Amino acid sequence: MIVPGSTSQSLAAALAVETDRRVADVAYDRFPDGEQLAAVPGFDGDEAVVVCATVDDAAHLQLLQLQDACREAGAERITTVIPYMGYARQDDVFDIGQPISARAVARAISTGCDRVVLISPHEPAVADRFDVPVAVVDAAPLLAGALPSLADPLFLAPDAGAVEFADAVCDAYGHGETDHFEKTRHSGSEVSVDPHDTEAAGRDVVVVDDIVATGATMSAAIDGLDKPAQTVVACVHPVLVRNARSRLARAGVDAVHATDTVEQPCSTVTAAPVVADALE
Ligand code: R5P
Fold first, then answer.
1. Residues of the chain with pLDDT under 50
2. DSSP SS3 for 114
3. What is the pLDDT of residue 196?
4. Can you give the pLDDT at residue 224?
5. Which atom of ligand 1 is nearest to the CA of 216?
6. Does the chain have fewer CB atoms within 10 Å around its N or its C terminus?
């Protein structure tokens, strides 16, 4: 059975169709003191596929509860799909005294499952932080299917780390040119980018990144474009915190296309096909 977390309803439903599996009826409840209780009363079968984007602390805890509930209900094998893995960006110690948060959460999740599927993690090396086998799949190429008809498109990565995502979308789209900017991060919500030699004037530009969180990276990149014909944002994980969506609008973005690894109004592309491949 597919066992959805409350943060991954759409992806779990799409995955059930894609893999011809049933969806468990999960109850998401809370005690009067605020503690969560996620239960899977009707679980039956040998294998559970828990699908839960850990977009916040509550989702992390809910994922651990769902794994435990499935084991308690008799699941012999538990596969945990983490569509978007929270804390994965703290994948190292960047200042004295800091934790490797990605390792801490990966270890906790590993205690309750037999294998993990990660979708387009920010750093693929985060897979090594788990104590169970991990399959890493990339949903970026699926974004190409959502793009409109584009003339002479430029697929632009806002920083060097996003180049592989821009290349993947460009390849899947079938034609276009790729380039990237150089990013300097000044704080959690402020960045600056240095343009390359890219000629964007009059062109359809698709700015591609793995994550859009505060929108600082995207809006800085778009500010660096000289009079594009249209500007489209494509990302795998539309985290979109605070005023990110209006920040993109103010920057002149015409459309945002994203996958359902994080559920947002712009999550029109399902990542189910690549997860289904990993489950096979
Ligand atoms: C970092 O390198 C990631 O690829 C994204 O560029 C970053 O997480 C986006 O965050 P924000 O939207 O807050 O700039």
1. none
2. coil
3. 64
4. 83
5. 14
6. C
* Active-site residue flag, 183: yes
Tens of pLDDT along 82-100?
Answer: 999 999 999 999 999 999 9
**Of the candidates 1, 18, 15, 19, the residue with the CA atom closest to the CA atom of residue 53:** 15
The pLDDT of residue 151 is 86
Distance 219 CA to ligand 1 centre (A): 11
Q: How many angstroms does the Cα of residue 191 sit away from the middle of ligand 1? A: 9
**CB under 8 Å to 41, separation ≥6 — which residues?**
25, 27
- The rounded distance, in Å, linking the Cα atoms of 155 and 166 is 6
Joined tokens for residue 14: 């799409």
Which is nearest to 238 in space by CA: 112, 83, 33, 82?
Answer: 83
Paired sense of beta strands 27-30 and 36-39, if any? antiparallel
Q: Which two tokens stand for residue 89?
A: 């960006």
User: Which of 129, 183, 203, 237 is labelled catalytic?
Assistant: 183
- Cα(261) to centroid(ligand 1), Å: 16
Sole residue written with tokens 């209006």: 246
Q: Give me the pLDDT at residue 187, please.
A: 77
Q: How far apart are CA 20 and CA 168, in angstroms?
A: 28
pLDDT for res 226: 86
Phi, psi (rounded to 5 degrees) for 145: -65, -20
Q: What angle do CA 28, 240, 242 make, to 5 degrees?
A: 95
CA distance 130 to 87: 13
Q: At a CB cut-off of 8 Å and minimum separation 6, what does 92 contact? A: 100
Mutate to test the pocket of ligand 1, among 192, 212, 261 (most ligand atoms within 8 A of CB): 212
Q: What is the pLDDT of residue 191?
A: 76
